[in-house]
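Sequence in, structure out. Go.
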Amino acid sequence: MVKVSFITFTKNSAHRLKGLLENVKDVVDEIIVIDGHSTDETVSIAKSYGAKIYQRKPWGYPDPDRMFALRQASYDWILMLDDDERLCNRLKNNLKEIIEKCSMKKFVAIDLPRINLSRNGRIILAPYFPDRVLKIFRKDCVVFTGRVHDGPKVFGRTYHLSSEYYLIHLPYHENNWLKKAIKYAYYQSIQYSSIIGGNIFRQALLRLLPLTTIPYYLYLMSALVKRNIPINFLSLKYCFRRALYDSILQTLMVLRSDKRKKLAEEISKNGFSQFLGIE
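Output:
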């Protein structure tokens, strides 16, 4: 049976790390924790599960260290989760069988749906529900650029798991949402030359942000309606948050100096990890 290395990234993650490692410990063959010099019980919890622990300079988000993490893995197949993600029971019980079958059929990566939960345990029916994420792959067939919100580049075939196999994304602290959104928008404004994409109407709305924040919000809502996804309070709330985030990001990008724009073009082309010199 195929062997799997599990990788996660931590920074003062004691409140969630034990739950994560309990979730995966029986279905992986090694645990690797890349830690940003935590000051709580994160490291001791990781040690209690026999994890290999590497402490690295914290960058504010894990992406710059993803390639470093892959180099520490003993096995070809990787399961990489954040500390607030969990395998559903069906996926956990069948993980190795799924990877084995995909490997035999020459797939090099597996993407799967992720269900986002609110603080009261309800599923968030927001834009891009359910979002599909690539968390299982061969380490020699992917490249991470180190940019925030940038998934891996896959060199080979990707298998798309059905909706019965999914990740659970636990809720974050609501009080910190705006602060976190501004931080990530700032990172993204430095690292991306543009966020303009999609159909012509969406592109026009994005270009005119923040003036079009409300029309853009309505556009996101209409996308749910077209997909027959029920609209509820959480839908309204998280569609607005997405519109506000993109509005903040586009504003920061418009206000960039020429020097910052050139820097963003360089990072978009070559990656942020290369820019930092930590590949």
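Check: The longest strand covers residues 107-116. The two ends are 31 Å apart (CA to CA).
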